[in-house]
Amino acid sequence: MTLSVPSHDRGVTTLTLDSPANRNALSARLVGELSDALDACAGDDTVRAVVLTHTGNTFCAGADLGAPPDPAAFVALLRRIVELPKPVVARVTGHVRAGGLGLLGACDIAVAGPDTTFALTESRLGLAPSVISLVLPARMDPRAVGRYYLTGERFDAAEAARTGLVTIAADDVDRGLVPVLEGLRRASPQGLAESKRLATRAVRDRFDAYADELVGHSASLFASDEAREGMTAFFERRDPAWTL
Fold it and tell me: Could you tell me if 78 and 41 are in contact, meaning their C-beta atoms sit under 8 angstroms apart?
């Protein structure tokens, strides 16, 4: 199993990424299980909001390079989070890499702890943050997008909050979540759904305008010679041929 059995507490359902052996990487199986769980939450009147969290020291390492999901399926998952008529709150106490930042960026609210680190590592593999560009440019500061897309540098929770990737950088994640979840529990289902529609308009517009183009872009990069070299070097734990 790559997703734990959901838990439910006073209107809040928690979905837990539970594949620590591969650092909760986005496999086809994980994408499918998470999509199904979100569909179940959408149809359950007892669910007011969803918390997305993880086991292990990594929230999500990005695409599973050994068994990557179809880009169109990953786009559908991101869109499902954005369009879900219930808020999705990310609870992050571990590292986030590459496509994991897209998963995080699709959430409505994100609370990250002091041990979190973030990096968009695609450029170092001969790839680019194609599909996750449906969400990140609408969430993050443009200068930060330019810097971290290009360099692949790591940054911490404070920087993630400064740039807009996360909502709250908290010393204690669960304490930071208390006012957020209490606020969601006090809101009406209609109030939440319609308020979310207003808040996510810019992201939804990007899906309408660019989804097909970026799915094709991702597929073409994964099939390229440079990406093959980058991924081979990653698995062999060596520098790729272009490293200076």
Answer: no
